[in-house]
Amino acid sequence: MLRLIVDDEGQLWPDLLQKLPGRGVYLCMQAECLNGMSDRRLQPLKAKFKVDFPQWEKVKERLVSILHKQLLQMFTRLRVKTEIGRDAVMHRLWNNAPVLLLIATDAGDAVVRQIEDAVEKREQAGHKSRTLSVESKQWLGEMLGRDSVAVAALGTSGMMATNVRKLNQYCGWYGQLKVIG
User: Fold this and answer.
1) pLDDT band per the 50, 70, 90 thresholds, residue 112
2) Is the dihedral of CA 64, 175, 161, 24 positive or negative?
3) Helix or strand or coil: residue 12?
4) Strands (E), 37-128
5) What is the pLDDT of residue 24?
6) Which end of the chain, N or C, is less surrounded by CB atoms within 10 Å?
7) The pTM is what?
8) Could you read off the pLDDT of 8-30 as tens digits, one per residue?
9) How far, CA to CA in Å, does 85 sit from each of 82, 89, 116, 173, 179?
């Protein structure tokens, strides 16, 4: 769920960190909810707030922009602890600690197959790993300050757990918003 704040001019703003002042409503960010979202679905807000319509396209643009900035900021902070590239990721997978794998949708078949095989072997040994598909090699490269990155890995234990959980959530939301256009 994502909090939307209504400002004095009747505009809706996403409150990603849930720290903005003011009253608002919560928006379901699951794929089913977002696919059916429109200005018609936002009409009940008029009962509680002074809201100008049409709003959904603006809210969606603001949300994509804010998520992109937040993801860029998070990846910049986490870059030091991120394993980038096939060799580094494969080495990281043999460590027993939990890991989050970021795989670009346009990554090569051989790389994806090799990573998936390693993940399967890890899980058979009882070690956790989550896989998250991201938009493209170009996008992942931009987030990590490189030209193009097909695969990256982040440890998910200890102090990294909260950051990685939020990163996973925001990447999911960003992807869902990109899919609905």
Assistant:
1) very high
2) positive
3) strand
4) 82-84, 99-104
5) 76
6) C
7) 0.82
8) 888 888 888 888 777 778 888 88
9) 10, 6, 15, 24, 26
User: Sheet harboring 12-15: ordered strands across?
Assistant: 12-15, 2-6, 24-27
Residue 153's pLDDT is 93
Quote the CA–CA distance of 181 and 179 in Å, as a whole number.
5
Query: Which distant-in-sequence residues (6+ apart) come within 8 Å of 72 by Cβ?
Result: 142, 143
The two three-digit tokens of residue 113, written as one number:
């197959």
Residue 128 has pLDDT above 90, yes or no: no
- Ordered domains of the chain (ranges, CATH): 2-66 (no CATH), 76-180 (3.30.1330.30)
pLDDT digits (tens, 9 = 90+) for 54-77: 888 888 899 999 999 999 999 888
CA 76, distance to chain mean position in Å, is 14
Widest pairwise Cα distance in the chain:
56
Name the DSSP class of 85: S
Torsion from C-alpha of 78, 127, 162, 178, nearest 10 degrees: 70
